[in-house]
Design goal:
It is found in: Cytoplasm. The chain is α/β, with parallel strands linked by helices. It folds into two domains: 83 residues, no CATH class; 320 residues, Divalent-metal-dependent TIM barrel enzymes (TIM Barrel, Alpha-Beta Barrel), CATH 3.20.20. The protein is built from 14 helices and twelve strands. The strands form three sheets. An eight-stranded parallel beta sheet has the order 3-2-1-12-9-8-6-4, with helices on one face. A two-stranded antiparallel sheet has the order 5-7. The protein has a two-stranded antiparallel sheet with strand order 10-11. Strand 2, helix 4 and strand 3 form a beta-alpha-beta unit. Helix 3 runs parallel beside helix 10, helix 5 packs across helix 6 and helix 9 packs across helix 10. It is globular. The N and C termini lie far apart (48 Å). Bound molecules: the ligand C[C@H](O)[C@H](O)[C@@H](O)C(=O)CO and manganese (II) ion.
Length: 426
């Protein structure tokens, strides 16, 4: 380790120690945290099962940066590059359309063996895997409805796909010895004001009951359900609203997935964590960055990210919260997008752990709001950067922006040499 990094760390440690914060202990805790890195940033949510299928479901990727992964091997190579620049051991979050197989299974026919290469790869690298049924970008969801579709045959297809997905998730968990979270998100909704808001919700509820009927070992597998306020083409109404899934999850002992981009523009998920935690045994996060709408921008160190970190630390929710990322930006280097978003998420957690939580809580209890505000503000310029640099160096990943040169080299040597998808698809 370079001496200046160590010296700055030792100086920072002393400052934090004056407030009773044991920085070495904080880093031991930080090292245990896993971020579930979403595979779909690497190829603009295209997947490998249906090569010519347009992205649907009211989500959108914009940008034309070269180098999107075209095959499972390319995607794994890009993920490996990103993980080499991110401190800690993490998880990869897969969607069903990322099956790695020469077969052409339909979504309702998927089996664990279609993901065996992902499992072998993850095992070799000590990574965990999470999973998602892909209820979009498919002809059976073309009218924007899946599990709530009025046609029982359409519902059956998606129910069977979700059931298959849970079995795949359970296989991941069992094989890798790390609990897999399978998250169900469906895009179902209407562009304009519905005549009947109740019937689609009744159908969605009944479909979910079927999806979750099979009991799976919770030490291998946990279920989550993700709500949404609106999407492109479902501006007026989404069947799976927050209230719908909050009720469903609490009644059925499922986890609620809070996506930072799925609420009203001024509504934040950080403020929901402590409430939901009182009524659920775990929460899944999709850390994202909405800009005016559910735009899925790369996560930056903004107030909401810091507040998410604070809430997880101060309410002691780190053990029961599964932290996943969900953004997709095709206007910048995709490996860099992962590195920026994941490093920021870890850094925000570190910053939260380096705050004088007990002193702040005490000031609040005493009614001393002056001290609460003063300490909060002064800690914003405490030397967390020195601790972060030390942590990166100690973890064997580049310090500060040094990771960028490695991404640029990878771009030159690998990403820019990739042709179009069409050139390798049979
Ligand atoms: C691709 C993801 O599953 C998707 O982004 C979903 O999680 C979502 O957030 C939809 O808006
Ligand atoms: Mn999401």
């Amino acid at each position: 380790m370079q001496e200046p990094i160590r010296q700055s760390y030792e100086a920072a440690k002393e400052l934090y120690a004056q407030h009773g914060i044991d920085v070495d202990q904080v880093l031991r805790e930080l090292e245990k945290l896993k971020i579930s890195v979403h595979c779909w940033q690497g190829d603009d949510v295209r997947g490998f099962l249906f090569q010519d299928q347009a992205l649907t479901g009211g989500i959108s990727v914009t940008g034309n940066y070269p180098g999107a992964a075209r095959t499972p091997n390319e995607l794994r190579s890009d993920l490996e590059k990103a993980f080499s620049l991110i401190p800690g051991k993490h998880k990869v979050n897969l969607h069903a359309i990322y099956a790695d197989t020469e077969e052409k299974p339909e979504l309702d026919e998927l089996e664990p063996r279609h993901f065996q290469r992902w499992v072998d790869w993850a095992r070799e690298r000590g990574l965990g895997l999470d999973f998602n049924p892909t209820c979009f970008s498919h002809e059976m969801s073309k009218d924007g409805l899946t599990l709530s579709h009025p046609d029982p045959a359409v519902r059956r297809f998606w129910i069977d796909h979700c059931k298959a997905s849970r079995r795949i998730g359970a296989y991941f968990g069992e094989q890798l010895g790390q609990t897999c979270v399978t998250n169900v998100w469906v895009p179902d909704g209407y562009k304009d004001t519905p005549a009947d808001r109740m019937a689609p919700r009744k159908r969605l509820k009944a479909s979910l009951d079927e999806v979750f009927a099979e009991k799976l070992d919770p030490s291998h597998h946990l279920d989550a359900v993700e709500s949404k306020l609106f999407g492109l083409g479902s501006e007026a109404y989404t069947v799976g609203s927050h209230e719908f899934y909050m009720g469903y999850a609490i009644q059925n002992h499922k986890m609620i997935c809070l996506d930072a981009g799925h609420f009203h523009p001024t509504e934040v998920i950080s403020n929901k964590l402590s409430s939901l935690a009182l009524y659920t045994s775990g929460i899944l996060l999709h850390v994202s960055r909405p800009m005016r709408w559910d735009s899925d921008h790369v996560v930056v160190m903004d107030d909401e990210l810091l507040d998410i970190g604070r809430e997880l630390v101060r309410s002691r929710l780190l053990d029961t919260t599964h932290i996943g990322l969900d953004f997709f930006d095709a206007s910048i280097n995709r490996v860099a997008a992962w590195v920026i978003g994941t490093r920021n998420t870890i850094k925000a957690l570190l910053r939260a752990m380096l705050e004088p939580v007990e002193a702040l809580k005490k000031a609040e209890l005493d009614g001393d709001f002056t001290t609460r505000l003063a300490l909060t503000e002064e800690f914003k310029s405490y030397p967390f950067g020195a601790v972060w640099d030390y942590y990166c160096d100690k973890s064997g990943v580049p310090v500060r922006e040094n990771w960028l040169a490695e991404v640029k080299t990878y771009e030159q040597n690998v990403l820019l040499k990739r042709g179009s998808r069409a050139s390798i698809v049979n």
